[in-house]
């Protein structure tokens, strides 16, 4: 009897897990799935993206983990395509490969001063506060140590996440799974004023109303905005709800002893000032025409800033052997295109397929579309002769983190959390994660 179709899924974030679920959860084509991740831990942006104070959303990991327990799915963590395995290796070992490695890069502002100390990308800050092993702790912590005036560029949900986490008081963060050093640095950060800059008007902001309203309920900060553009009527319900929430913010006044979070629209940064580090942002007032197009007015002012965070979107990048164009891998409904033609046996799902938009659940539909294409193609996909992927990795001296190893990390994170009365605490250090995974610290 022919063996099951062997599929590798590259990236164990939501898109990868939903793809594995769709593959393992059907009966038409017998399939085994190797779910690879470059981190020793699964869940991608559910672990290292969703803000730690959004505990209910982070609990999505409890649902996603059921897929890891499926007998047809094997989690293979701490394996990096391009370092431990090439795309050609994957093709030699598996009948089909689904790339779901996301868009982990940060878009750049492209303005003078962007590389000064004190200027960060939101991806740097998010990686740090979620305990990502690759976070640049020294850079982020040095910037936060003197962050009294913070300017956030962008008015999407990531900007709101960063603003909220910086504006929360220690008691509000106490029960999160953030590493202790993160809680300590946030508690000591002198944040007084946070300004978010939207380059277009309030009606064009990309944040969602629930996340916006949350800013109005912080115990240690007041949400403020200017009335500019708030009298607009919109027939789009989400926009009308945002405008209504912002009108409430426009009624708020600063309160002594509380930080402020001010949303400013029609404002774009044109230069970051400072010699050795950021001291301010030159902001230009903008105008938006009826087609939502933006233009500068040349009217500028300087906002003081000790920390500038660009929350202007994520960017997909090449994997060695798989190029992106404009941030995504060219594809047709999930089938990878190389030189304009479908490349048999190669698929994409998630942000690397469609770009960095949508909520976690968007990836479910997206992954199902890709898996439907793969299953439809399966009769024509040649079965490879290659060895087992994990055997090959071990033969190359790698120690992949399998499900039981991940469970040991999971236990260690619960135990670490319990030492301070928390449900769990994220272990951020890669060597510590590996040591727990492979038994050295159990
Ligand atoms: P986003 O929603 O695309 O927001 C990016 C923001 O940056 C926009 O305000 C954009 O303005 C602005 N921007 C882009 N380039 C700029 C530039 N050069 N100068 C000034 N401003 C610039 O992206 P995101 O916030 O990174 O979020 C990514 C995805 O994850 C979104 O789909 C988001 O909803 C989702 N997410 C959801 C949650 C949640 O559900 N709680 C949390 C986090 C993220 P323009 O509109 O003018 O381009």
UniProtKB/TrEMBL annotation:
This is ferredoxin--NADP(+) reductase. Keywords: FAD, Flavoprotein, NADP, Oxidoreductase. It catalyses: 2 reduced [2Fe-2S]-[ferredoxin] + NADP(+) + H(+) = 2 oxidized [2Fe-2S]-[ferredoxin] + NADPH. It is an enzyme of class 1 (oxidoreductase). It comes from Klenkia marina. The lineage of its organism: Bacteria, Bacillati, Actinomycetota, Actinomycetes, Geodermatophilales. NADP(+) binds at residues 199-200, 211, 358. Gene3D superfamilies: FAD/NAD(P)-binding domain (3.50.50.60), NAD(P)-binding Rossmann-like Domain (3.40.50.720). FAD binds at residues 15, 45, 81, 351. Belongs to the ferredoxin--NADP reductase type 1 family.
């Amino acid at each position: 009897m022919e063996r099951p179709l062997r599929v590798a899924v590259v990236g164990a974030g939501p898109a990868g897990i939903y793809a594995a679920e769709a593959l393992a959860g059907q009966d038409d084509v017998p399939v085994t799935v190797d779910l690879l991740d470059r981190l020793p831990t699964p869940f991608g942006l559910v672990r290292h993206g969703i803000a730690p104070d959004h505990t209910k959303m982070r609990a999505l990991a409890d649902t996603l983990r059921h897929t890891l327990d499926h007998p047809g799915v094997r989690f293979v963590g701490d394996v990096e395509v391009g370092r431990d395995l090439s795309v050609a290796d994957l093709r030699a070992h598996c009948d089909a490969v689904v790339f779901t490695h996301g868009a982990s890069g940060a878009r750049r502002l492209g303005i003078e001063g962007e590389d000064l100390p004190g200027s960060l990308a939101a991806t740097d800050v998010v990686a740090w506060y979620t305990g990502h092993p690759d976070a640049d702790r020294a850079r982020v912590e040095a910037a936060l140590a003197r962050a009294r005036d913070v300017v956030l560029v962008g008015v999407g949900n990531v900007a709101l996440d960063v603003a909220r986490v910086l504006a929360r008081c220690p008691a509000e963060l106490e029960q999160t799974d953030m590493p202790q050093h993160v809680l300590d640095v946030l508690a000591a950060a002198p944040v007084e004023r946070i300004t978010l800059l939207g380059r277009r008007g309030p009606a064009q902001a990309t944040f969602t109303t629930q996340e916006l309203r949350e800013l109005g309920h912080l115990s240690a900060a007041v949400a403020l905005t200017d009335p500019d553009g708030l009298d607009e009527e919109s027939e789009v319900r989400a926009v009308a709800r945002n405008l209504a929430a912002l009108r409430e913010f426009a009624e708020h006044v600063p309160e002594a002893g509380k930080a402020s979070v001010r949303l400013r629209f029609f404002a774009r940064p044109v230069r970051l000032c400072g010699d050795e580090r950021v001291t301010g942002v030159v902001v230009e007032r903008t105008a938006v025409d009826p087609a939502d197009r933006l233009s500068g007015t040349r009217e500028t002012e300087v906002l003081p800033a000790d920390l500038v965070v660009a929350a202007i979107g994520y960017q997909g990048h090449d994997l060695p052997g798989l190029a992106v164009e404009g941030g995504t891998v060219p594809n047709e409904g999930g089938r990878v295109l190389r030189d304009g033609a479908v490349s048999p046996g190669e698929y994409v799902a998630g942000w690397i397929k469609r770009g960095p938009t949508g909520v976690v659940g968007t990836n479910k539909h997206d992954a199902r579309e890709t898996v439907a294409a793969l299953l439809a193609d399966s009769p024509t996909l040649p079965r490879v002769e290659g060895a087992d992927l994990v055997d090959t990795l071990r033969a190359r001296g790698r120690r992949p983190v399998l499900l039981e190893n991940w469970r040991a990390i999971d236990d260690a994170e619960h135990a670490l959390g319990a030492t301070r009365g928390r449900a769990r605490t994220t272990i951020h250090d890669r060597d510590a994660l590996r040591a727990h995974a492979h038994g050295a610290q159990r």
